[in-house]
Amino acid sequence: MIEITPKDVLVVVDMQYDFLPGGSLAVSGGDEIVPLINTLAKRFTNVVFTQDWHPADHISFASQHPGKNPFETVDLPYGTQVLWPDHCMWNTRGAELSADLDIPHGQLIIRKGYVRTIDSYSGFQEADRETLTGLAGYLNERDVDRLYVVGLATDFCVGWTAIDGAAGGFDVTVIEDATRAIDNAGSLAKAWADMAEAGVERVMSKDILG
Ligand code: VGL
Ligand code: ZN
């Protein structure tokens, strides 16, 4: 059994309506993990959230690239970008965190992807691999050294947040059954391989809850 301490943080990634069933970029089964995340959160003193937060003309939207469809790619200055349906736009319901989350002691919501020209899957840094969100500074000031990552989607925002957390010197564990994936074109298998290579650990919720 894993013991959770005040040096640990639960990072709840992108539990927003657009990623839940009925949303514009719905992740299959995304709603199923809400009760489990609520149960896990009760074990943690420290909980933070990430929130995908895009302007309506964000560069990651297929709608901004004439002739392109969602899930196709374009080459941008920082690399290859997957194009998405419009999602998580400022001040829309789709961008709101699910009201079914019951985590009143959650401490911080870190928004990402708000620069029009840069996407950000990671809660730590944007896709240009330069622009930092401030999350590492926050966690270091709070004397946190281990991250447990849950939420949506395993193969994008969860995976990138985990990998960047490990690169930033944190011990990082993903709680697999408290995530769900998009799994487009092999992205889930690739994400698990990339996480393993980065030293990210992979556990199930029973390892924490018993
Ligand atoms: C995400 C695609 C685009 C995610 C965010 O939360 O995994 N995926 N924006
Ligand atoms: Zn996004």
UniProtKB/TrEMBL annotation:
Gene Ontology BP terms: pyridine nucleotide biosynthetic process
Pathway: Cofactor biosynthesis; nicotinate biosynthesis; nicotinate from nicotinamide: step 1/1
Domain Isochorismatase-like intervals: 9-201
Keyword hit for Flavoprotein: no
Top-rank lineage group of the source organism: Bacteria
Pfam families tied to this protein: Isochorismatase (PF00857)
Entry EC no(s): 3.5.1.19
Keywords: Hydrolase, Metal-binding, Pyridine nucleotide biosynthesis
Annotated Gene3D superfamilies: Isochorismatase-like
Annotated PANTHER family: LD05707P, PYRAZINAMIDASE/NICOTINAMIDASE
Family note: Belongs to the isochorismatase family.
Protein name: Nicotinamidase
Organism whose genome encodes this protein: Devosia ginsengisoli
